[in-house]
Amino acid sequence: MNNNQSQTRMHRLLSSLCLALLLLATVSLGNAQTTSRLTVDSHDITVLLHSNETFVVFANQLLDNDVQVTLKTDSENHLGLDPVTFLYPAGSTQNQTVVITGLNAGYVQVTAEATAENAEMLEDVFVRVTVAKSRGLIYTSIVFGWVYFVAWSVSFYPQIWINYRRKSVEGLNFDFLTLNIVGFTLYSLFNCGLYFIEGLQDEYEARHPHGLNPVMLNDVFFSLHAMFATSITIIQCFIYERGQQKVSFVAYGILGIFAVVVIVSAGLAGGSVIHWLDFLYYCSYVKLTITIIKYVPQALMNYRRKSTAGWSIGNILLDFTGGTLSMLQMILNGHNYDDWASIFGDPTKFGLGLFSVLFDIFFMLQHYVFYRHAKEQSSSDLTIVTEAAQNQGKDDSPNDVTNGKY
Asked: Which of 68, 148, 252, 361 is close enough to 325 for a disulfide, judged by CB 3.0 to 4.6 Å?
């Protein structure tokens, strides 16, 4: 009995010793994998001209050796740094405060360098500095941003309401709707991918080490909401009166080309020929193309019918408001940050906004000037094919006019 108790105690002692050694090894391994690094309290700072802001450099744990830190910028005349060089001593818990002075408006990257053996410790020491001319312009830009976000988000509902009130979708071009739902689906795919999927975020960070994720939560909300609202409108097309309207063969052909681009790029990403981030970029390029062409079918349909009945002008007015404020925000930011290159050097975003606003103006001219009498005569608010009335005795039929093909 005593022998059994001794053996049991021996087993317990050995088990406890093994567990202690295992825990010690785990802790040691964890410490070995944690690299001492210097970092900053903020990676994004806005400073006004001739004003000062600060950021703090500190260590995430005690350093094993002294580190001589030298700060540098990608532009010498936009801001001043004090100090530019400092020593961070080993075993210290001190914080080094750096003062930024705004000299000229613009965007500046502040990074740090050290000797080769300490370079890895400074990878997280970087600050994106925005030097602005006016704080008032910053607030105005923010207000413009929220107003155009709301305007664009609400712009889908006037069309939904007019369809519900009329119990008809006649006058609403189906090609426009089809292109719209495809575009917003791809836009949602891009936004959700970069916002929710960590692997894609890591890919983006690897390409842009000091860059900021371009997708924010409001981008995700807008794209998903736009897809939802467009889906509601499409459902209305199945349950309300639609006459002879249908998606044209030209639209099917365009969508077929887009489908080939998306499927092929997805296959290449799945086969590791390209990165999944590249696939998302290709989806965004398709969305941009759709944004350029999607209004053409509706404009042609209004022209052929000589009427805008069934096409909500509220949608256009809100879209015009959003597009105009979006461009004004870009112009304000260009002036405030002396960043005209973002508009004229890479004109894609500004050009798309301008293109949409020009289409909105054309739609307003159709509604309020060119076909205003046709709208006034539409007392029942149903689709009126005025071309048929003007061309009685000719071979054209109302069905040919309302098909909206192009």
From this structure: 148
Predicted pLDDT of residue 352: 75
pLDDT tens column, 49-72: 999 999 999 888 788 888 889 999
Quick: pLDDT tens for 255-302.
999 999 999 999 999 999 999 999 999 999 999 999 999 999 999 999
CA angle 299, 303, 305 (to 5 degrees): 115
Within this chain, do residues 143 and 120 fall inside the same structural domain, yes or no?
no
Q: Residue 12: inside a domain, yes or no? A: no
Which are the contacts of 275, defined by CB distance < 8 A and separation ≥ 6? Answer: 203, 269
Helices (H), 62-216: 135-154, 157-166, 174-196, 198-207
Q: Give the Cα separation of 160 and 189 in Å (integer).
A: 24
Judgement on whether residues 241 and 374 belong to the same structural domain of the protein: yes
127 lies in the same domain as 185: no
The pTM for the full model equals 0.77
Distance CA 299, CA 366 (A): 9
Residue type, 66: D
Q: What pLDDT is attached to residue 10?
A: 55
**Burial 67-85, CB ≥16 within 10 A → b, else e:** bebebebeeeebbebeeee
pLDDT-based confidence at residue 357 (cuts at 50, 70, 90): very high
Among 12, 321, 380, 18, smallest CA distance to 158 is for 321
- CB-based contact 171:305 (threshold 8 Å): yes
Beta-carbon contacts of 78 under 8 Å, excluding residues fewer than 6 positions away, are 102, 103, 104, 105, 106, 108, 129, 131
> In terms of residue numbers, what domain contains 143?
136-402
Gap between the Cα atoms of 20 and 227, Å rounded: 57
Residues 235 and 201: their CA atoms lie apart, in Å, by 35
User: CA 46, 49, 50, 51: dihedral to nearest 10 degrees?
Assistant: -30
pLDDT at 133: 94
